[in-house]
Amino acid sequence: MMCLEGQELMLSSIPQFYSGSQSIEITAKISVSLPGRYEAAVFYYPLSNPEILITDRTLLVINAQAGDPTPNPIVTPDPDSLFSIPSTPKPAPTPSPTPTLKPTKKPTPKSTLKPTKTTTPKSTLKPKKTTTPKSTLKPTKTTTPKSTLKPKKTTTPKSTPKPTKTPAAKPTPGSIALRPTSDVFDVYPVNTRYYYNLLNDEEKALFSMIYDEVVNCAGVVDFKDCSFAVYERVMEAILKDCPELIHVDLSNVNGYTNLEGTVAQYLDFKGAYRMDKQEYRRQLNQILDMIDSFKSKPGFGPSDFSKQLMYYDHLIQNSYYDKEKTFCANADSVWLHGYAKCTGYSHALTLALRRNGIECFSITGNTYDNGIKAPTGHMWTVAKIDGTWVQCDATWDDPDEDSLLYQGDGDHYLPYFNITDQMMLSARKLDETHFTYPTCTSMQQNYSYKKGRYIRSGDNIETAIIKGFKDALASGVRHFGFVFEDFSSFNWLLLNMDSICSSSNFPNGVSFTYYNVPETHYFYFQID
User: Fold this and answer.
1) Between helices 461-475 and 487-501, what is the axis angle to 10°?
2) Residue 351: which H helix or E strand, with range?
3) Tens digits of residue pLDDT in 440-481
4) Radius of gyration of the CA atoms of the chain, in A
5) For residue 126, what are the contacts with CB-CB under 8 A and spacing of at least 6?
6) How far is residue 256's CA from residue 517's CA, in Å, rounded to a whole number?
7) Which of 82, 157, 174, 317 is the most buried (most CB within 10 A)?
8) What is the distance between the alpha carbons of residues 117 and 120, in angstroms, rounded to a whole number?
C-alpha cells in the first residue's frame, strides 16, 4: 500500500506471501505521477507461527520526482521477533499477554436415552450468601515517591520521547531487596508463588520494585535501563503470579524501550488503576476474610483436595461467565460481584488456594474448536494438590446459567477438575512462556477417581456402568460421572450405550440423559 504524505490511501499492491525462510528481502518498483514524499507500508506474518496476527507495519519513506521510477525499496523484516513492547525510538503501548477474550466453551452433545420415563422432582442448588467477617488487614499509608518522569501518551507513532530527568528517589534493581517490602506480598506464603520463585536475584529485584510501586499506585516505574530478557520474565510473573493485585488493570499498562528496543526503560501505569490505595485495601481485606471463613465450614480440610473442592464449588455455583462487564478479569469480580471471564476465575481460585498454603499458578493458551485452533485466548490453573500436580479449569467446569448439569444432589459435573496434561491440552495449546511448567500425569486427585468411578483400561465397562446406576438409585443420587483411563474405552461406551441400556441386568424403569466430553474421557449421567 502507498500514499502521498498528508493524503488518503491512493494505491494498494497485491499481497505476496513467502515461507521456508527466517527472513525475506522484499523488493518492489514504484512509479509516481506527482512529485512529493511518499510512504509505503509493509506488513508480514511471523514465519515461526503464521497463525498469529500480523505484526505492526513497517514504513518506507520515498522522495520522488513525477514520472521517475523510485529506487527499489528493500525491507528485511524480523519474522521471529517476540518482543512484547515496541522497539521504536518513541514510546508506544505494550500489548498485555493477559488473555482477555472469552474461552470457547464446548457444548457437550446431549443424547437422551429413555427406555422408560420416570418423573423425579428436580432439585436446585441455591447459592449461599457468605457473611464477611470484619477485616483484619489494616490499610497501610505509604508515601509514593514523586515522579518527574511523565511520558506523554499519544495515539500516533510521533509520541513524545522519554524525558531525560528521572526521580532521584527511585532505586535501581540492584540496590533493593529481593522481595517486596509491602505487607500485601505476605497475604499468602511466598513458597506458593510459582513464577516468583523461579526468578534469579536480578529478576527478583526488578519484580520487587515494580510490585511495591504498583501496590502504592505509582504512575511511572523506571527501570534504569533494564535488559529486555529480564524485563520479559518479570512482567510475565507480574501478570500471572499476583492475583492479589485486584486494583490494577494490567492490560492498560504501557511499556517503553530504548531506541534499539533491546533495553526496557519504564512502565506507565497512569490510567490503569481501578481504585485508590484505601479502597484497594478495603476490598482485598473483604476477599481475604471471605476466603478465611471457609475454614469453619463442615468438610473443609485437612487435605488439599477437600479445600480445593470447596472453593471450586463455591466459585462455579455463585458466579457466571461474563466478559462484557467492567473489570471482569480480576479476582474480585468473582469473590465480590459473582461474574468473571477466565482470568477472573483463575485468579480467584489461585488466591484462595495460596491463602491456604497450596502452591498453584495460572497458565495461558489458545482453545480449540473441533480440533481447530480458535483465535481465543484462555487462562486456567495448575495446582499442587496433596503433593500431586494437576490441571483444572473452573471456567469450563462452570455450566451455563440455565444448565441442569449441576444439581448438588450427587457427583458434580467436573470434566476439567484435576486432570492430566494430555487431557487438558487435547483441547488447547499453551502460549509461549519464559518459564518451565511441572508435568501433570496423575489422576489420583480427580473427583471421579476419588469416588471410585475411574474406569481403567481392561475393566469391564458394562459392569461398572450398571453398578454405578444401582448405587445411585439406592442412595437417591440423580447425577454421577465416570472418567476413563483411555479414549478407546470411552469410545466403546459411546458406541455401545444402546446395548447396555437394553441389557436385562440394567435397572428397570430408569430414564436418563448422558453428556460426554471426549477431550477428558468424561461421561456424566443424569437420571430423569
Assistant:
1) 60
2) helix 342-355
3) 999 999 999 998 999 999 999 988 988 888 888 888 888 889
4) 28
5) none
6) 44
7) 317
8) 9
